[in-house]
Design a protein that fits this description.
single chain; 8-stranded parallel beta sheet; 43% helix; 11% strand; binds zinc ion
Length: 312
């Protein structure tokens, strides 16, 4: 049994078939966690769809109406890069509800993982790059509206810049956004996060981890977050089809451990969302995402008193 909840819904899977976005990965991660005994059935909690009121704190009324009525224009639909369907709308509303629930659970348990979400390219008035609704944005705005948190830190290690996150929270001093991404990659142009780290093509584990550590150190020096949302993309992996960095699976696990260690050390509740992952073998993407959950588990167990640990 895990020391925190995993938020998951079977309808996160969009059944996209041969699409480069492997939405079957959510189900595969769920199954693998059970198969390997990392999680039990009792560790999973199913989210509800986010209320429209929550989505509307981030997205424009016009965009939400178009999504719900199937009236996006041709170029708007094209920009999503995933086929529009009622199932897609349902799945992204569920993912936003999932990240919100994960935020609420993390404030109680210290940790939570949404086995979905991380749709960091979604902007207030449009979706792009497989991202329709910005689940992390919806979650942070809901938690702020409930006065459950005052401020939040978003750490985004997806290989692509979190331009939607930057657009949503730009100029808002209550949300510190840190994005580490490959410079010569989508999106073009990039938006401005609180801190953007543009990485050169082909960067490997050691250089990457040193820069991440420095960036986390600076973020925690400059800011005292009430919660950390970790956008843990699997696509800095060297076998990724849409990424140009060269991290190994072990390097990605060390990356996850480092982010979790900063949250633990500073006693900041952490929510992990999965974000991108387009490895040639979908099994690698699944393994990297499972690694994120294992890193959160290890950090959560390390933050408990030793006597509790011994009885588990
Ligand atoms: Zn990505």
């Amino acid at each position: 049994m895990l020391p925190f909840k995993l938020i998951y819904h079977p309808r996160y899977d969009l059944n996209l078939g041969a699409h480069v976005f492997p939405s079957q990965k959510y189900r595969m991660i769920h199954d693998k966690l059970l198969e390997e005994g990392i999680a039990g059935a009792e560790d999973f909690v199913a989210p509800e769809r986010a209320p429209d009121q929550d989505v509307l704190r981030v997205h424009s009324q016009d965009y939400v109406r178009k999504l719900k009525t199937g009236t996006l224009g041709y170029t708007e639909e094209l920009r999503l890069e995933v086929p529009y369907s009622k199932e897609l709308v349902q799945a992204v509303w569920l993912a936003a509800g999932g990240s919100t629930l994960a935020g609420q659970r993390a404030l109680v348990d210290g940790w939570a993982v949404n086995i979905g979400g991380g749709f960091h390219h979604a902007c207030p008035d449009h979706g792009e790059g497989f991202c329709v609704i910005h689940d992390v944005g919806v979650a942070i705005r809901r938690l702020q509206s409930d006065r459950a948190i005052e401020n939040a830190l978003v750490v985004d290690t997806d290989v692509h810049q979190g331009n939607g996150t930057a657009e949503i929270f730009g100029g808002d001093g209550t949300v510190y956004t840190l994005s580490l991404h490959q410079e010569h990659n989508y999106p073009y142009p990039k938006s401005h996060s609180t801190v953007d780290v543009n990485l050169p093509d082909g960067m490997g584990d050691e250089d990457y981890l040193a820069i991440l550590e420095k960036s986390l150190h600076r973020a925690f020096q400059d800011f005292s977050p009430g919660i950390l949302f970790y956008v843990a993309g699997a696509d800095p992996y060297r076998e990724d089809q849409l990424g140009g960095l060269k991290l190994t699976i072990e390097g990605l696990a060390r990356r996850d451990a480092l982010v979790c260690e900063y949250a633990r050390r500073h006693r900041v509740p952490l929510v992990a969302t999965l974000a991108g992952g387009y490895a040639r073998r979908v099994e690698d993407t699944v393994r990297i995402h499972v690694g994120t959950i294992v890193a959160a588990r290890d950090a959560a167990l390390a933050s408990k008193p030793a006597v509790t640990r011994a009885t588990n």
